[in-house]
Amino acid sequence: MKTDIEIAQSAQMLPISQVAAKAGIDEALLEHYGRVKAKIDIGPLRAKPRKGKLILVTAINPTPAGEGKTTTSVGLADALSKLDKNVLLCLREPSLGPVFGVKGGAAGGGYAQVVPMEDINLHFTGDFHAIGAANNLLAAMLDNHIQQGNALGIDVKKITWRRCVDMNDRQLRSIVDGLGGRMQGVPREDGFDITVASEIMAVLCLADDLKDLKARLSRIIVGYTYDDKPVTAADLKAQGAMAALLKDAIKPNLVQTLENTPALVHGGPFANIAHGCNSVSATDTALKLADYVVTEAGFGADLGAEKFLDIKCRAAGMNPDAVVVVATVKALKYNGGVAKADLGAENLEALERGLPNLLKHVENITQVYGLPCVVAINRFVNDTDAELALIRDKCRELGVNVALSEVWGRGGEGGIELAEEVLRLCGQAHEFRFAYELDLPLRAKIEAIVKRVYGGAGVSYSAAASKELDRLESMGFGSLPVCMAKTQYSLSDDQTKLGRPEGFTVTVSKVKVSAGAGFVVVQTGDIMTMPGLPKVPAAEKIDVDENGVISGLF
User: Fold this and answer.
1) Is it the case that residue 551 has pLDDT exceeding 90?
2) Is the confidence at residue 390, as pLDDT, over 80?
3) Is 539 an annotated catalytic residue?
4) Omega of the bond leading into 116 within 30 degrees of 0 (cis)
5) Annotated catalytic residue within 69, 162, 379, 445
6) pTM for this prediction
7) DSSP strands (E only) in 79-199
8) Is 432 in the active site?
9) What is the 3-state secondary structure (H, E, C) of 121-147?
10) Which residues pair with 175 in a beta bridge?
11) What span, in angstroms and rounded, lies between the C-alpha atoms of 91 and 335?
């Protein structure tokens, strides 16, 4: 059986100009990055009205058994294309952190992938490098300002802006820099975030255009003065140079699936520590070109979908028409307490114990957000008819259908059942609503997410977090949405609590404002903005031969 990378390397890719033509994109708007990749100049498309139906693909909380959310997204887009629908796929760009860490690539799998898979998973069109450069330019200008006399009166103990690198590197979480003498900088405690957690990633993904991007960059708060006044990128006169570094990165990237369905792959904030959605500019462009737009949000619906709906859709004025919640029988049995090694055996009791995790996510989509929903079971060969019937029966009690997805092994053909149900849902009337209103105090918004979306009993705040919430509201940031940073493995902030935990309290440890992105980041538990590599990193299996052919990437 072929590996994912072998399947991708044998793909018959169309020239990107032909893919663009399928998507209704004029050749004159393409900026070619070789034969099969291009950036799109979306300026001439801005005046077009949105016409497409927006389909969000999300999932249960991730487990070691895997769920296949990106694979399902790709296969669904290919299935809609097979049904002669005008469709565009919108995905996030992978981060090098998980590519070389635990997860591996993020371009789909099997016969439901976006290609060129190696390029997308590694350097692609350089967007993440540009974001990292802009982030670190701001950091350099901040420290240089302090070194050169500190006219703004910046308190080095109140600096909030960190450098970033797109790699899992725990050694850089907490560092001391500026050592070596008076001319080598001001010694201070510092640290790095992973690039996908940088506020600049969020800014790029939420900006409408270059003008909006520069305005958002100017509002970024990098620290505070001795008298506790915020210092922004505009105060440092950094926004122009940062925007210059990002002028190409803000343009969406056009690629294709294995079945030549057009795909926009752009932006990539993590969902457990950022807002977890591809760029507004890519999704907006797709909605203007296609009749159906398939997109995904990171990790489980408690993280990616919540932020997609409460942050991205609110900011961009988008109204989803259908939501797909992806699950696997194995992952549900894992939630029911079965060890990973034993997930292949039928176990209806464990499945029933694990099903509440899926049902909670479904309830959130249908009852909290008021959206039509279908459960997609990413099918494996050892799933039994009895297990599948149990899932169907439980979902039917919530008025939600279940569709089997076999896109990993069969491509778009294996997603026809799912596509037909999605088309049916797109024709249903619905009343989309948010989990909270913006005029609520910040604590009320946090508690609405914890109680309504996570199913928790309440929230506790560290002294520092409570003080910062009060300060942010006094500074006028109380009307912003909140971006929760939480473990992806549980509905709670404790990754060991699987299934559908109840009665738990979420602990808010830290709060900060991302004024450029336009939200308040709320860190829970011990969530970190710089992951580390596992004991056996995926990087150990990745290689390239003398002909430049990459292996071991998945």
Assistant:
1) no
2) yes
3) no
4) yes
5) 69
6) 0.95
7) 87-91, 108-109, 112-115, 154-159, 163-165, 175-177, 188-190, 192-194
8) no
9) HCCCCCHHHHHHHHHHHHHHHHHHHHH
10) 190
11) 27
| Catalytic entry in 299, 434, 519, 554 | 299
Token pair 């308190």 in the structure block, residue: 155
Report pLDDT digits (tens) over 217-243. Answer: 999 999 999 999 999 999 999 999 999
Considering 408, 434, 477, 554, which one is annotated as catalytic? 408
Taking 80 as the threshold, does the pLDDT of residue 1 lie above it?
A: no
Closest CA to 497 of 528, 524, 463, 530: 524
Alpha-helical (H) ranges within 338-449 are 348-363, 385-396, 407-410, 416-426, 442-448
| Mode of pairing for the β-strands spanning 38-40 and 30-32 | antiparallel
**What single-letter amino acid sits at 404?**
L
More confident site: 534 or 449: 449
| Interval 426-458: pLDDT, tens | 999 999 999 999 999 999 999 999 999 999 999
Catalytic residue among 37, 92, 163, 307: 92
pLDDT at 98: 86
DSSP H/E element including 444: helix 442-448
Q: How far apart are the first and last CA of the chain?
A: 14
Catalytic site includes residue 408: yes
**92 flagged as catalytic:** yes
Identify the band that residue 103 occupies on the pLDDT scale cut at 50, 70 and 90: low
| CA nearest to 36, candidates 9, 72, 65, 57 | 9
Q: Which of these is catalytic: 58, 63, 70, 71? A: 71
Alpha-carbon span 417 to 76, nearest angstrom: 9
Over 90: is that where the pLDDT of 514 sits?
A: yes
Q: What is the mean pLDDT of the chain?
A: 94
**Helix residue spans in 449-501 (DSSP H):** 463-474
Residue the block writes with tokens 């994109």: 25
pLDDT at residue 31, as a whole number:
97
Is there a catalytic annotation at residue 188? Answer: no
Sheet holding 221-225, edge to edge: 154-159, 221-225, 230-232
Mean pLDDT of 98-124: 88
CA triple 507-512-515, angle to 5 deg: 145
71 is annotated as an active-site residue: yes
How many angstroms separate the CA atoms of 517 and 427, rounded? 33
Q: How far apart are CA 157 and CA 136, in angstroms?
A: 19
Residue 126 CB neighbour total at 10 angstroms: 12
103 catalytic? Reply is yes
Annotated active-site residue in 380, 432, 452, 471: 380
Q: Is 329 helix (H, G, I), strand (E, B) or coil?
A: helix
User: What CA–CA distance (Å, rounded) separates 331 from 347?
Assistant: 12
Q: Which of 8, 271, 274, 316 is catalytic?
A: 271
In this structure, of 235-244, 348-357, 377-386, the range with the lowest mean pLDDT score is 377-386
- Catalytic hit among 48, 85, 103, 451: 103
